[in-house]
């Protein structure tokens, strides 16, 4: 007999949740219900409150009022390490890894397998790590240092970590953001088999196609409020987008009215043996050029080379019809090229510095900067 949704067992139930960050009222009476063995998608525009809801459910942010129930028990404002013990696991949006430690050390951080003398049982941990990675279909050596992995591989390790604690509910925040198409396919298979075994998934994504392929229900948030929940077979993308933004959407792909000008960047014969070969393209003023390919295809390396961060062996780069020699990022910036990195936390931002310094340091040599600590003034 097939159960109807109404009689399905509820595992996670959030009611009337309010969360504040100082004066910011981030969640305004949110409700969410997740049943056993279902995949619920949580959607909303940027700032709608999705991450805050997850942080509040997992005890990272404090609930001002309202309740969070797990299998009937009130777990509101339970500390994060105790939340994991209850059976809720989270795979966060950003990668929260220890880059200098190995894959298995990251996987077992805080939950190491110990032998009877209280020491880490490396052999058991390696075996369990290999099994978990094998289940995700990823070929990564558990002894590899985290910083040697690509962004996508590190994201897979985060997901693996969430899978390893026998969780009843797994919350996945933008899990496919850094994954390739083939990694996404494997992840979907894993998620579907988890659903079959009764595990529930809360799936956050901005990618509608993925949500409609994978999920059973979809809950919508807007400006910190709960808008509603729809069963996937009974709704469509237009309706969900309308709920998210609160009005009818016009054309999804409206005709563009920007003027396309002359070629501003032309790359020809760009080669770095074994990495990329004979790369050729040009970009005109006002154009957006997409560069696609599987992970390892060399997309990032080509852009790094154009930006002067990776030496290339042959080829030509022209800006506004004039050949330029770019040997460093400073030269690239002087030629009017900017670069937003793939791994913003590590390569793109100075997290310990002020927003002021982060926002202005690209203007190489033009910004007077006074260190708040030592009061020295210098130009960046
Ligand atoms: P995104 O899709 O961009 O991740 P979101 O739906 O997850 O957005 P939240 O990050 O939960 O939204 O943000 C909800 C509101 O709370 C926003 O107004 C945001 O600016 C605010 N907010 C989030 N985190 C903090 C914080 N640490 N301190 C202060 N305000 C915050």
Explain this structure:
- With 380 residues, the protein is of the alpha/beta class.
- The chain is 28% helix and 26% strand.
- It is built from twelve helices and 16 strands.
- The protein has helices spanning 50-57, 80-86, 103-107, 122-135, 151-164, 181-196, 208-214, 237-245, 299-306, 329-334, 344-348, 355-360; strands at residues 10-21, 24-35, 39-43, 63-70, 73-74, 88-91, 169-173, 200-204, 217-222, 225-231, 263-272, 276-284, 314-319, 322-324, 368-370, 377-379.
- The strands form four sheets. Strands 6-7-8-3-9-10 form a six-stranded mixed sheet, sandwiched between helices.
- A hairpin with a 6-residue loop joins strand 15 and strand 16.
- The longest helix has 16 residues, at 181-196.
- It is globular and about 70 Å long.
- The protein starts with 9 loop residues before the first strand and ends with a strand.
- It binds adenosine-5'-triphosphate.
- Adenosine-5'-triphosphate is lined by residues 21, 24, 26, 44, 46-52.
- Adenosine-5'-triphosphate (ATP) binds next to strand 2 and helix 1.
């Amino acid at each position: 007999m097939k159960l109807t949704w109404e009689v399905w067992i509820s595992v996670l139930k959030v009611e009337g949740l309010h969360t504040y960050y100082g004066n910011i009222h981030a969640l305004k009476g949110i409700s969410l219900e997740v049943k056993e063995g279902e995949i619920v998608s949580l959607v909303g525009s940027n700032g709608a409150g999705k991450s805050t809801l997850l942080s509040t459910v997992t005890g990272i942010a404090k609930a001002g009022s309202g309740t969070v129930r797990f299998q009937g028990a009130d777990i509101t404002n339970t500390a994060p390490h105790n939340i994991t013990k209850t059976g809720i696991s989270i795979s966060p949006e950003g990668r929260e890894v220890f880059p200098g430690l190995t894959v298995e050390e990251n996987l077992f951080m805080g939950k190491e397998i110990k032998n009877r003398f209280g020491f880490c049982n490396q052999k058991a941990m390696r075996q369990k790590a290999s099994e978990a990675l094998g289940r995700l279909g990823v070929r990564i050596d558990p002894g590899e240092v985290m910083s040697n992995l690509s962004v996508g591989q590190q994201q897979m390790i985060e997901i693996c970590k969430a899978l390893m604690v026998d969780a009843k509910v797994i919350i996945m925040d933008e899990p496919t953001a850094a994954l390739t198409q083939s990694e996404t396919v494997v992840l979907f298979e894993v998620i579907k088999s988890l659903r079959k075994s009764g595990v529930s998934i809360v799936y956050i994504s901005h990618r509608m196609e993925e949500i409609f392929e994978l999920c059973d229900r979809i809950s919508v948030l807007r400006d910190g409020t709960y808008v509603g929940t729809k069963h996937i077979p009974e709704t469509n993308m237009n309706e969900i987008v309308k709920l998210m933004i609160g009005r009818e959407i016009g054309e999804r792909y409206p005709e563009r009215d920007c003027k396309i000008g002359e070629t501003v960047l032309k790359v020809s014969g760009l080669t770095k043996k074994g990495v990329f070969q004979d790369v050729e393209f040009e970009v005109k003023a006002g154009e957006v050029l997409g560069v696609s390919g599987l992970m390892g295809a060399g997309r990032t390396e080509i852009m790094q080379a154009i930006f002067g961060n990776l030496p290339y062996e042959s080829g030509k780069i022209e800006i506004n019809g004039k050949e330029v020699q770019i040997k460093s990022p400073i030269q690239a910036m002087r030629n009017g090229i900017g670069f937003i990195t793939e791994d913003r936390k590590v390569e793109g931002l100075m997290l310990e510095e002020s927003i002021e310094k982060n926002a202005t340091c690209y203007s190489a040599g033009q910004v007077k900067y006074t260190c708040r600590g030592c009061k020295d003034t210098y130009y960046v």
